[in-house]
């Protein structure tokens, strides 16, 4: 069972796709969002949840006051679960983009993103992840926070020139990498 940890929808459960996803544990989401809330990175933010799965990360951000959340998920069944979860929770400003992450990111940037949450499949190789991070960079606000969730058995992501790693946190088998735009590379 997966639940929203805190905020307007705190304590409510959400559905998880029957297969093909690996939802972030409640414990890891709680630790992640405690840190993000403390840094003022969620309330009023424009959020991208890439490889959304059930939408748990993006919906947690919406529950905690994010202004706009886009759940990007290419799996048809998972995208449908994201839509149902968003509708069931009744959180405003949430939309689902049912397409591959790179397709979404290769469009011209719109309003800058304040928080990007990436929980790619563990089998996404490092060159694939590097391509996604590179494509993400032009979409980021100057003060943006990027969080990449990976298995603790994988190497550090290859950060593009526009991003700099700021921290990492380990929670059992889960490793969270934090990054931000390098000074002078983000639009606003």
From TrEMBL:
GO terms assigned for molecular function: methyltransferase activity; nucleic acid binding
Membrane-spanning ranges: none
Pfam families, A to Z: Cons_hypoth95 (PF03602)
Region feature (Disordered): 1-23
Keywords in alphabetical order: Methyltransferase, Transferase
Domain of life where this protein originates: Bacteria
PROSITE patterns per record: N6_MTASE
GO biological process: one example: rRNA methylation
Annotated SUPFAM superfamilies: S-adenosyl-L-methionine-dependent methyltransferases (SSF53335)
Signal peptide extent: none
Protein name as catalogued: Methyltransferase
